[in-house]
Amino acid sequence: MDETLALNAIPQPTPAAPSPSAPIPAADNATDGRATSRVLGDSARSAVVTAGQFGAMMLPFANRTTGAARINASLKTFAKPGTWFAPMWAMIVGCVASGNAHWQFGSVGRVLVGMILAGPLLCAFSQVTNDWFDRDVDRINEPDRPTAANALAPSTVLAISLGLAAAALGLAYALGIVVFYLALGGLALALAYSAPPLRLKARNGWLANAACAFAYEGFAWIAGAAIFHHVTAGTVVLATLYSLGSHGLMTLNDFKSYEGDKRLGLRSLPVMLGLDGALRAAFAFIDIFQVAAIAFVFAHRMYLAGAIVTLLFIIQLPMQRKLATDPKGLAPWYCASAIPPFVWGMLVCALAVSAGGF
């Protein structure tokens, strides 16, 4: 899925693009094994760099502009490692919410395996699938992406997609039947988002962003708790609220594809509502459901946690006012600045669930 909590640049459209129905031109190196190795090698190196950069940007005094630029670079590589952070973090949050994850070898190992499932397998599958079915619009918005540039043979893309899906389902099954069904649901949402006949991102931005948000946040959060065999009502409620909040972040991500989506008739929310309307809708989702999560935590008498999440929410408000002055130009800055307090709020809520037992 291209909508992700990743920190995306706002590329300029090229003057022209092939019709969606036009045949894909064959690239001279599409079947060149060296080209394939280079593309996959670039993606692997980008994954390592991006992991370190995300860790740095979670700190309060990190350079947001530099961090955003480095993460943006990862979005030009195959499977876009910069998008893996969101589901991997949600997986960690779910493990914490279970109350059964401890600083022991076996416990830490299960958390790491869950992170691999959420990011390098499930999220990578969604990105590879989305890039393939988005190759026409990417030739307008981001023509240097490997799939848009026809740097990989179709058979290679198919083999990688199937391999990622099979590995994800096998690993999920080993982690438990609930995790398996959640992984299966995540794969289904990824296909519904990107692939015909549903291809939600082309039909309805409301449903497309919901599918993406729940696959990236809600399912991964609940799966993390399921890995440790303790999914509570509080976990499900908070995972749902933060998934709906993430719906707004997905809308902001769609700003970067506005020109291409509009030209090809894709019904993203910026196209459906206009840039100003989409911005208001994004803020409504981000703010309303964070406030609902805060109220839920306070309702369970976890006052310290509620106060911390409230502070993390308030920090985001002046950033939203700044973003409103230039939504397209400031979207990368906003994601680099506002997503850290958003996701720290998720973790504090998970700690509240673990401590409060609700």
Number of helices: 14
Broad structural category: mainly alpha
Helicity level, as a percent range? over 70%
Mind telling me which CATH architecture this is? Orthogonal Bundle
**Number of beta-strand segments:** 0
Anisotropy-based shape: globular
Radius of gyration: 19 Å
First-last Cα distance: 32 Å
If you consult CATH, what is the topology?
Farnesyl Diphosphate Synthase
Q: What would your notes on this structure say?
A:
It is built from 14 helices and no strands. Helices cover 73% and strands 0% of the residues. The protein has one domain (33-356): Farnesyl Diphosphate Synthase (Orthogonal Bundle). It starts with 32 loop residues before the first helix and ends with a helix. Helix 3 crosses helix 9 (205-227), helix 3 (85-98) runs parallel beside helix 14 and helix 6 packs antiparallel against helix 7 (177-194). It is mainly alpha-helical.
Quick gist of this model?
It is built from 14 helices and no strands. By secondary structure, the protein is mainly alpha-helical. Helix 2 (64-74) packs across helix 14.
